[in-house]
Amino acid sequence: MAEPEIQALISLLDDPDTDIYQEIKTKIISYGDNIIPHLEYAWETSLDHLLQQRVEEIIHHLQFSVIKDALINWKINNSNNLLEGAIIAAKYQYPDLAPNTITDYISKLTQDVWLDLNDNLTALEKVKVLNHIIFEVHGFNGNVKNINSPQNSYINNVIESKKGNPITLAVIYLSVCQKLNIPIYGVNVPAHFILGFAEETNNVLFYLNVFNKGSVFSKNDIDKFLEQLKKEPKKEYYIPCDNITTIKRLLQHLVYTYDNLGYPDKKEELAELLAILEK
Prior knowledge:
Residues 102-251 form the Protein SirB1 N-terminal domain. This protein is α+β, with helices and mostly antiparallel strands.
């Protein structure tokens, strides 16, 4: 599409006729996200509030479509990469997020852990090293004062602030373990998210609470927790879950937090993302 045609199309966005606007919007959207820089330039150089508002609406629509496509592709082709799933979720709020800022940090964190590991360490000793580097040296901890803030669910914000919820802290912990081939996996417990050390599939030696700096506990503690919740014990509450389940938990928590905060549009869009993984 030629530059003059783009500018002509965008210049019509201030038409007061909503039917005409919808036609123009549909036409612009049909060109995909490559048109976003032109829309951003129009927003920056215009003083027309209506045009700016409509540009924002179209940009968000295009960016949301990109996120949906990325999540579908991740689910089908790359769900073995947990960190990528968390980055896609973060792009909902931060569409310009550069993934390499996250992956580079995780690589540095992994290197720091690797330097303190050796082949002779027991499972508990490996966890002690992980906990020391992640929670003491790098300073990650659970955001106990504001656990239901949506910012706790965006991996870039968690890395920057060093505060997260059980799911995002688990994503960071698991991303390091996957790089180092340490057999620690997510465990999908109701009203919580924990980790389990399992050298053999579904045979968990012990569990970790990353929201409490990686404290170690046993199956009996899960039993007591489920009893407090008045939940019947199910096998899935004790064994490793896959990465899709982990990102589903992340999106479920975002839906819950935005619902509580009174953002119905965000709640509906995140529910749409969640539905992609639930199909």
